[in-house]
């Protein structure tokens, strides 16, 4: 739970702080990810597919050569 202090009745500043805290803590992303249940095997498969994509991308875009 995020807590924001309102200083001198400045609601706009408090909303700005709230928005930045939500972004920094990735709270909205976790809510969206947990919206539907997914099987552990599906999650593992997606992680492996992402790792393969990243590995291939890094291999093709190696700038040290």
3D architecture notes:
The chain has 65 residues and is mainly α. The chain has one domain. Helix content is 66%, strand content 0%. It has three helices and no strands. The radius of gyration is 20 Å and the shape is elongated. The model has no long low-confidence stretch (mean pLDDT 91).
Brief summary:
The chain has 65 residues and is mainly α. Helix content is 66%, strand content 0%.
What is the radius of gyration computed over CA atoms, rounded to a whole number of angstroms? 20 Å
Structure class = mainly alpha
What share of residues are in beta strands? under 5%
Helix share bin: 55-70%
The average pLDDT score comes to 91
Kindly report how far apart the N and C termini lie: 48 Å
Q: What's the order of the H and E elements?
A: HHH
Inertia-based shape: elongated
Number of strands: 0
Give the biggest beta sheet.
none
Uncertain stretches = none
Number of domains: 1
Number of helices: 3
Features of the shown structure:
single chain; 3 helices; 0% strand; mainly alpha; elongated; 65 residues
List strands and helices in order, with pairings.
Blueprint: H1 11-25, H2 27-33, H3 40-60
């Amino acid at each position: 739970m995020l807590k924001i202090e309102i200083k001198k009745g400045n609601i706009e500043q408090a909303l700005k702080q709230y928005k930045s805290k939500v972004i920094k803590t990735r709270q909205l992303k976790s809510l969206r990810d947990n919206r539907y249940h997914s099987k552990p095997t599906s999650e593992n498969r997606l992680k492996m597919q992402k790792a393969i994509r990243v590995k291939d991308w890094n291999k093709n875009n190696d700038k040290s050569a």
